[in-house]
Amino acid sequence: MLTWVALLCAVAVLFAAARAGQREPVGDRTVGEVTRVGVAAGDPVPAYLRVAADELARLTDPTGPAPGTYALVSFSAYLTPQRVAATLGATPVSAVVARVPLPGRQTEIVRMAALRVPQDVVAGMAEVAARKDGEAADYRARAAAPAASADAELRRLYDTGARVAAEEAAAYRSACACVYAAVTRATSVALRGLAARPGVRAVDPAPEVSRLDRTVFTPPLPEQRDVARPPADAGLAPATPAGSAPAVADSSEAAPTVSDSSPGSAGSTPGGTPPSTAPTSPDAAGGGSPGAHR
After folding, report:
1. What is the pLDDT tens value at each position of the chain, 294 positions in all?
2. d(Cα 238, Cα 267) in Å, to the nearest integer?
3. What is the pTM for the complete model shown?
4. CA distance linking residue 267 with residue 185, whole number of Å
């Protein structure tokens, strides 16, 4: 009897081990899923502002230990780090969104982590300035390469990229008025109070957001009044032949494109391919199935 019991136990253990070996590992089901909060390219900005205000009015606080709701706060103008602190007051901040507003230029839109304002914003700007210095040097090196020396249009594109990157670096190094949005997390009452503060254009609550690393924020730029669409970049337009009329710009508004972290040098495409647009970064979260917010 003891021999049979031992044999049955051994068979049961082997069967369980075999089943465990066949079981597929369970991964993170949220990988690849991206939530987008803000105004989409081509959408009307006034409609977005109305929808955000309606959602804020209906917002209720979540149950449980969650410390409030994430929200995208858009400003009416580009602000310095110190002005951001004054505008947001005591509202907890997770990140800010910034770009250097150079006239007639598409400039990179950067998202910087900022738990302490203005200290973290100033530090983040210094890091971006150092990266922009590297981008400017890379463009200058490409402009001096034999391929660009033999192609006037290619050299012009690289020279333009170098000038824009250098101007961005100088602006960020001076803690410029470049911040136009912030990501906050607060109670519904606090968010509604924030929406009424001077300088705040919109507070867009996003109760569905739980992971900032899986969220792309696309706030409207302060100058966007009608439709969110890319501007015509004067530095990247084809050179106008002598005696012909210059091209008419389509818009002065930039399309929102957000970068969570500092990418590599802009324009450093394999094989020295010229940049097709101004230094701009892709969505930080990459591809995947977009979650619907707006």
Report:
1. 666 656 666 656 665 555 555 544 444 455 568 899 999 999 999 999 999 999 999 999 988 766 799 999 999 999 999 999 999 999 999 999 999 999 989 899 999 999 999 999 999 999 999 999 999 999 999 999 998 888 999 999 999 999 999 999 999 999 999 999 999 999 999 999 999 999 999 999 999 999 999 999 999 999 999 999 876 577 665 554 444 433 333 333 333 343 443 333 333 333 344 443 333 333 333 333 344 456
2. 18
3. 0.73
4. 35
Strands (E), the chain: 33-38, 69-79, 93-98, 110-113, 179-186, 200-205, 215-218, 289-291
Residue type, 211: R
- DSSP structure class, residue 177: S
The structure tokens listed for 222 are: 């302060």
Distance CA 255, CA 62 (A): 32
Whether 144 and 261 have beta carbons less than 8 Å apart is answered as no
Least Cα distance to 275 among 112, 105, 111 occurs for 105
